[in-house]
Amino acid sequence: MQTSPLVSIIVPIYNVESYLEKCLQSIVSQTHANIEILLIDDGSTDRSLDICRTFAERDARIRVVHQENKGLSGARNTGLEMASGEYICFVDSDDWVDKDYVSALLRLLRTCRADISVIGFMEERNGQSRPANRHLGIRIWNMPTAYRKLCFDKELKSHVCGKLFKRKLFQEIRFPVGQVYEDIAIMGDLVSQTKRMAVNYAPKYHYFIRPGSITQSKNKMEYQWCRMQALYNQFTLGISLGIFKRYPPRFLRRCIRFADKVMLMEETEETLKYMEGISRYLRLYDGQYLGIIGLKVWMCKRLILRHPEFYRQWIRRIKS
Question: By C-alpha distance, which of 197, 139, 129, 194 is closest to 163?
Fold first, then answer.
């Protein structure tokens, strides 16, 4: 008879009293009962900690930690240090999951003999639900295939929620404290250790999109710049692993789109920092054939590097 493995569920918590009960109720109701629920209160100033303690009094599988605010990465890292399960998954404290969320991920992982399993999302916004992925049945990818799909950010996203990991993958890996888009910063390292990844986009994870969350603050250029740096690191690792021969045109196009946004802003020390970094990334494409990157992209790259003031005036004119 196959034993029921212990799964550690890590929930970072910070000032989410309005959403937390729904999240925790969905976790304690899992059909796979052999779970440990690690609630990491990251210095909340509302009733979040009280809610955690109330749930812990009712369910012996729950462990609560209250710590000084260290950010999302610091809270997740605390959970990783505490985890004793054979497998690890993450749930954000304003989201919720179907009752068979863990069992579906675990069954997928074990059936496919994978190191990571991936399930689908439902996006929850303004009372409306929408599947974030097309459900195309079960997919099994080897490491190079999974890594390419991760970098191209369509069939495989970089967030750690909606996934089940073998705990051994985190042996040398922790989330970078103080950095946004922390998932992108480590997912490349995690995927690079896998032999096989199993994917089934049946939606079991409910991602609640609320105003004010970091990932929805698209106007904040610093967050977007952190994402650019994380993507650069992903592609760089991919080259070192032999998955890519060179930085792909997709990353160059993303750099140019970011540069366009910066060019529309007033010049400050911050925007100069962004353009210095973007220029460094654009130079990675020096020597690539025009046929690889395309004429329009090649021209934009050349103008940004050689005639930035002309490019700034041109972008402002066409965007006005």
Answer: 197
Between strands 7-13 and 35-42, the pairing is parallel
Q: Is the distance from CB of 173 to CB of 189 less than 8 angstroms?
A: yes
What are the two backbone dihedrals, phi and then psi, of residue 263, each rounded to the nearest 5 degrees? -65, -25
- Report how far residue 9's alpha carbon sits from residue 119's, in angstroms, rounded to the nearest whole number: 15
User: ∠ at Cα 213 (149, 191), nearest 5°?
Assistant: 25
* H or E stretch covering 184: helix 182-192
Cβ contact 119:201 at 8 Å? yes
Closest CA to 67 of 88, 52, 89, 55: 52
CA angle 13, 15, 20 (to 5 degrees): 60
Q: What predicted TM-score, i.e. pTM, was given to this entire model?
A: 0.90
Among the listed residues 228, 75, 218, 98, the one whose alpha carbon sits nearest the alpha carbon of residue 162: 98
| 130 in Cβ contact with 199 (< 8 Å) | no
pLDDT tens-digit series, residues 22-64: 999 999 999 999 999 999 999 999 999 999 999 999 999 999 9
Q: Angle, nearest 10°, between helix axes 71-82 and 182-192? A: 40
Tens digit of pLDDT for each residue in 75-85?
999 999 999 99
Q: Which are the contacts of 42, defined by CB distance < 8 A and separation ≥ 6? A: 12, 13, 14, 67, 69, 70, 71, 72, 74, 75
Do residues 187 and 158 touch, judged by C-beta distance below 8 A? yes
